[in-house]
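Section 5.1 Outputs to date
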Amino acid sequence: MRNLIGVVAAIGCCVVWPAEDGGEELLRVTFDEASSLLVEGLKQMGITPSTNAVTREELERLWAADGISTAEAERTVDEWLEEPVLQGMEEGDRLRLIRLFMQYLRGSSVHDFSEELRRTEEKLLEPAVFRPVAERLALYCQSDPGLFPDYLSGAWLPRGIDALGVSHARVFRKGADVEMGGGFYHFGYLLTLQSVEGGTNHWHLSLYREQSVSTNLTVVQLPADRSLSADEVYELVCTGHDRRIQAAPTQPAAWQGKAQFIMGRKRWDDAVRVAEEWVNAVPEDWLGRFTLAHLRARQGELIRGADDFAAWVEAKPTFVRCIYLFLFDLREGRSGPALDAVRRSLDQPFVELPGERGSKFYLGFQGAVYAFEQRDWRLCHQLTDKMLTDGRLPRERSWHRDLLRIRAALWAVDANWDNALADMRSAAGLRERSRFGEDTERTEDEALQAAVERRDKDWIMDDRNWRGGRFKWFSPYETDDTGIHGARGVPNPYP
């Protein structure tokens, strides 16, 4: 799926042209050029383009309306937002382009996926691909279930299947599955325990396709007492992650996947070593340094980790990096340095640079909420005003609403009730316009506005009363390398 985003002419900021060596090359274009290409393509298909601002929640609901799960919808939007050709663009623009691209997919025959899916399915029918998968999954099923997370990435599987783009795999006592595709079409492998004869387990592997008959592939026979130890699983998965790092040594995601897996095994010395290698391989990546700082803290070297990360941010400051430093200090219980990091962000241009990952509005809002929590009203005012004067805010209705709400709370703290009420009325006009989110936002707004109207400063000063039930501190370790939200026990380097 990810390769097709570039191929279908500019989901983000690229166009694909034939290269001299017979391959393809991506030519960068601007946001306006990319959106123009998609708009023109939609018009040629007789489809009215949707060019208005859109939130990620709206995109997820659009996917869900096509019959896929909420988790898959969230994962799909996450994948597209992280698409390399989109990096360096404002999140609002990325979301608008993804919305246009979704329209394009719906309008094109079978969404232009059929040829790539056909080639992938043909590969899955090759014995060189499916036999190692069958053997690996069968061994996993016969091993201690506690060794396996809810969802396994391709790094847990043999090279052949990982190279084809695995969504995820799951392992159970009497079977396993490997899911591929996504969105409108799913397919993959299904392993089941067929029979047990004379101390031998017979495992049956088939290729399943959505709304199609499965294809029988092979039967693997294993002694029922054959299993993998924790060390054997560890070595297999580390080998898979090393393979991914070797293929993309400057991609933070490859390093993060390995470090996160090792964290889950509580091998902190190994995790620190991998994070150090990550920083050396990708020295400009904030996430490697963020991770290393936390891991050093887990090893009893909090000051060393904090000082190293702070020195790097100080030497190469950006707005987003300052907020990441704040989030590090927040989680390590360092309120003074955390506020200092938020304060440092005020001196930086309010932009997000390629590779910085998070939306500047999302991260800035987190800093403002923390300043409010710590009752540093001046800092909260300064940061909120910095974001409210940004020229792109009109495209970010959801964040505009949130910023007006926090400013209303600040006015209330100052007993400027008229301004507080005016901001709440403006925020009400920016609520999500759909049956999915509008009721929640209305309830949140009405509670805060009622507190303003009754001049209940004590209630307002506790931001937990009004910041919204969906609020949580940003974490780059919200998911593992499958990208699936909601999985249990996702490893992280935090206390």
